[in-house]
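Data card: per-record layout.
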Amino acid sequence: FSFLRRGMSPNLNLMTLVGSDYFSKIVTTKDSSGSIYDEDDEKTASYSFTITNYDLSILTLEKNVVGSTDADSFVFEITLTSSDELYNGNIKAILNGADEITIEFVDGIGQVTLSANDSLDIYLKTGMSYTIDEIDSQEALDVTYTIDNGDTIAGSYMTDTLTNDTTISIENNYETIDITGTKTWDDADDQDGKRPDSITVRLLVDGEEIEYVVTEYAVENYSTTYDGYDITNSYTPEKTSITVVKAWDDSNDKDGIRPDEITVVLVKNGEATDQTITLNAENNWEASFTDLDVYSQGVAIEYTVEEVSVDGYTSEITGSMAEGFVITNTHTPEETPETPTEPTTPSAPEENTPSETTTPTATTETTPSTSTTETSTSDTTTETVETTVKTGDMIMDCIVICIRLWNCSL
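The structure for this 410-residue chain is written out next.
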């Protein structure tokens, strides 16, 4: 120790005392009244100093954790008793060999917080009694205090008297198991594109002897089943159907060339598939493609239809996936000329023979009649003309004969 006079060299009146130099208590007085010395007071009077040194021991606490726990810190309550009196005051401690901290004791109790693998050196008066109690350690299945002499104490706390430097290892032993599960997607290889990028699984604890259960946060559009720790998410891809109707525009099959049935091919995203349906009179010329996927790799599929060509008909397709498709086949019947009626055979013309007259009457003139038979054909008309000509010749002959007879009578 050095005794200094203000402004004087620190080596003046140097005095050395032998003994422990850390845990000590100094009481200074400046008069017989026992007033405590204030270092800022002027040293104008004589002073007396009482310096008490104690044997010092270091209590080292080491925190170890075996297994896995959610806890990132552990709280210890330390109780100190000296000469059967609870200690009040501050105690110096060094954390992990570097950081100096102060532990405050009130009514003998102080608290300190350690993390896994921390080490804390607490400087205490030799002979002090102490109790170390880990607070909220019930989650640990096994807590042990191991003293450096090899003694092990099981339980959440231990009590002892510090007689020399002592190291106590406080170990929390969390019995652990590995929980392994698999995720299975039953969704046709994400055909509809509904699978999420990730899922969240919770680990639940049930009962005193820990029984773990896994549960999954709901995944939209999927149902979830569990088999132990294995999780299966299932999704049934959407399906649709497309109806096709056949219409005929052929004057009710006037030409008789309408086929008994036609074939329609399903077209998927512009490419013909091997799926076909048959339309005929039995199904009233209507059928459907069923159980069709709505999506492929998450993209909506575009469906159309094609008809296998029908001889003699043109084809037109109208409609949509939602409304269905109508295939109209058109054929214009050929115009047929009317069949002419058979001509009738004309009857032979009657010959007009002039009656025999012995005595013609001079005053009487006979006007020949012309017999004409009309028909509707050109050949018949020609025959009529020829007949008319022959009849006219006969009449002329009759006239000549009559004239001659007339002349004879004169």
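Known properties of this structure: The two ends are 216 Å apart (CA to CA). Confidence is low (pLDDT under 50) at residues 1-45, 357-388.

See the next section for split statistics.
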